[in-house]
Design brief:
Elements (H helix, E strand, L loop, with lengths): L5 H8 L4 E4 L7 E3 L2 E3 L1 E6 L5 E8 L2 E8 L5 E3 L13
Antiparallel strand pairs: 1-4, 2-3, 4-5, 5-6, 6-7
């Protein structure tokens, strides 16, 4: 999953509603069985928690869709666009 970069996630989901931690934060937290030090949080139009994206030192660790019961369900990372990029 680490091959997906931050720009691809930003393009796919937009600006996060909230950011917790930082890629440079030495502290590590754990959610949905994943260690992370930066979490992007997305809320729906109704204010309900919709999705979280977990990072550790700039590496994507997981994307989880949150259902109405609060359960986290893994999502596939967005495809990285490579057209026109140098190999």
């Amino acid at each position: 999953m680490s091959g997906t970069d931050r720009a691809a996630v930003w393009r796919a989901f937009g600006e996060p509603s909230e950011q917790v931690g930082s890629a440079n934060d030495p502290r590590v937290a754990r959610d949905a069985g994943v260690d992370w030090n930066e979490k992007w949080v997305y809320y729906g139009a109704d204010g309900a928690l919709l999705r979280v994206v977990l990072w550790e030192r700039h590496a994507l660790k997981g994307i989880f869709r949150i259902d109405s019961s609060g359960a986290a369900h893994p999502e596939r990372p967005p495809e990285v666009e490579t057209a026109g990029e140098e190999p």
